[in-house]
Write a structure and sequence with these properties.
134 residues; mainly alpha; 2 strands; 58% helix
């Protein structure tokens, strides 16, 4: 769920041209659609332009405390989503490492187990092999 330039500007209290300039010079990342519209991740917007959740310092006088609360909730929702995704990646990495450790232990046990040895066959083949037969 990405934000348009207009939504991003309203959320952080910056102008649309400031948001567009940040996208253009690489200060902020976003995806540009085939039709030229931008999709900006809320967490990326918060990284570059921290939001003023107090309601003060907004460029638009139409912002109310209710809007600020909605903005704060959007910031928190984006952070929760980001942390949940990170926790899922960490869980998957831990499970992968556990599987690798189990496989490594199995290999160590298999290599360290005593090998069953058979006695070398008697006769010509036994002399040919030099008594070494497994």
């Amino acid at each position: 769920m990405g934000l348009t330039i207009r939504q991003a500007a309203a959320m952080c209290g910056k102008s649309r041209s400031t948001i567009h300039r940040a996208l253009g010079n690489g200060k902020m990342s976003g995806q540009q659609g085939d039709d030229g519209t931008w999709s900006i991740d809320p967490s990326e917007l918060a990284r570059v332009f921290p939001w003023d959740v107090s309601g003060q310092g907004k460029r638009d006088a139409t912002d109310t405390p209710e809007t600020s609360i909605g903005t704060a909730e959007a910031v928190l929702a984006a952070k929760v989503e980001m942390y949940e995704a990170q926790a899922q990646r960490d869980h998957e990495a831990i499970e992968d490492l556990r599987r690798r450790l189990d496989r490594a232990e199995e290999r160590v046990f298999a290599l360290s187990a005593p090998q069953a040895t058979r006695e070398a066959p008697k006769g010509f083949l036994g002399r040919l092999m030099g008594g070494v037969w497994r």
